[in-house]
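Worked example 4.2. Below are the chains of a multi-component assembly; read each line carefully before continuing.
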Amino acid sequence: MTAPQTTRKQSPIAQAWLIMYNVAMTAGWLVIGLGIVNHFYKHRTHKGLYRQVEKQLLFFQTAAIFEIIHAATGIVRSNVMLTTMQVFSRVGIVWGVIQPVAQVHNTEGIPMLMVAWTITEIIRYLYYTFMLLGTTPYIVVWLRYSLFTVLYPLGVSGELLSIYNSLKPVRDSQMYSLFLPNQLNFSIDYHIVLIGTIPFYFIFFPQLYFHMFAQRKKLWDLDLRLLPRKQTDSSILDYLIHVVQPIRNNCMQCEKMKQCCVYGFYSSIVFLRKKMKYDILD
Amino acid sequence: MELQILDSKTKQKLCTLERISSNTTIDSIKEIYQRKFPNYYPERQSFKSSPKGKLLKGSETLSELNLGAEGVLYFKDLGPQVGWSTVFYCEYTGPLFVYLLFYFRLPYIYDSKFAFTSSPDDVVHLAAICHSFHYMKRVLETKFVHRFSHGTMPIKNLFRNCSYYWSFAAWMAYYINHPLYTPATFGTMQICSGLAVFVLCELGNLSIHLAFRSLRPSGSTQRKIPTATGNPFTLLFNFVSCPNYTYEFGSWVGFAVMTQTLPVFIFAFVGFGQMAIWALAKHRNYKKEFSNYPRSRKAILPIVL
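Applying the procedure described above to all two chains together yields the following structure tokens:
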């Protein structure tokens, strides 16, 4: 999620703490993962899953608050604001939507977000641990920068679904709400607050998602040994270019070339091909 | 000399100005630049002597900048600009109207049976008078009292500032004028003390604004340390650099106590946060500029901050 931690001139205490923290978090999420697998193996249903892993989830997800402190004190090179937003959105969902609303526990959003979060967090904390220790196996890097493409949408969908499922119970129970008249002359309807959080998902998800793609591209660009440049013309884009080439040659003689969509299509493929210097589509 | 103008981000050459004498000021450069690019009025232009350097002041001359034989200046477009007075008028008249929409209980805000009704509580009428007085005072100060050293600000500030003032006015007005409004727990005593604090702080705020105005007569560029004048409200200068902000915060706290409404307290504290940032910066500038600046003075809260 956030930029990888770096071990520049760091105090040994800070380093030791970070290693312990990341190892503990990796272990914690592994335990949660095992709990999920165990539950599905025994019961074959997502019902009861949350109750099975609730205590560990609450503990380890809340412990992510430390990452804000890490960013704020500078022992981890991450943007404080970004980290705060990410941690608070997770902690907010857990303590504001899932834990207090029992009716949400057996809905479909829960296994979705549990799977997404668990896999993402195990890999993320494992990645940080290895970065701190100095040697990062290629497989961990690859997993971190590839699985998000599926897990991030899965997690966000699970969260949105859970919020949606919590709306009616929250409205009926009037939880976390204050109504007029009262001495503060103030009112807040938690049901409306929850609805109000939904647009933010649509605003921020694209930005964060494509930010990860950009990070990924930077990574491949930086470290050539991670993914060798293909010499042969074997990617889908090259094949498309090969197919459209004869038409394109005709286009060059046509007066209406710039307005034509065929030429536009060709140009966009060439542009994409240039942008993706390394063949990941193969 | 010849002056090349480059874009400060892309470093592309935008134009070359010829036959520029070395004692030309940046202001004159801006006028010349506008003749070449009529869309860029001077307030929108900014020049720097290095791509990441500071913005150059209008009065600086080319010779002071040590540009050398081949002069290069970097240009940055500040975006569409709007005058400070314009922004102030917009952001202050908004709350006047918005509050009154709620005070007169226009339809569709509250339940339809309350449309155009009037509150039975006196404090609600008092609050409408106070709130309107506050913003009326601000509008009049903008017209007659304030002197702005910068002419303009980027237009997006207009939207941002207006959203802040207008939204908060609506939020406060909604609860104060609500049919289910609950007056102060401690009754008339609380209302009167809140009102007294509000009135005194409004007068204090006005006094400080007038004191700032008389500190530097119009046209002069002399900068002086602000001190207490004959007006007793200005004695706060002995304790803080920006007593206008202190009084402003005091006004809203008084208003909050009088109306006993949480959103007003929140507004007071959010405003305080922003004003504290400004006050600390001003305080730092004063101390840097005047070696004999009174050491016991704080920025915004006596003794504390």
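Take a moment to check your reading of the output against the notes. Residues 3-7, 224-234, 277-282 of chain A have pLDDT under 50 and may be disordered. Residues 232-278 of chain A form one domain.
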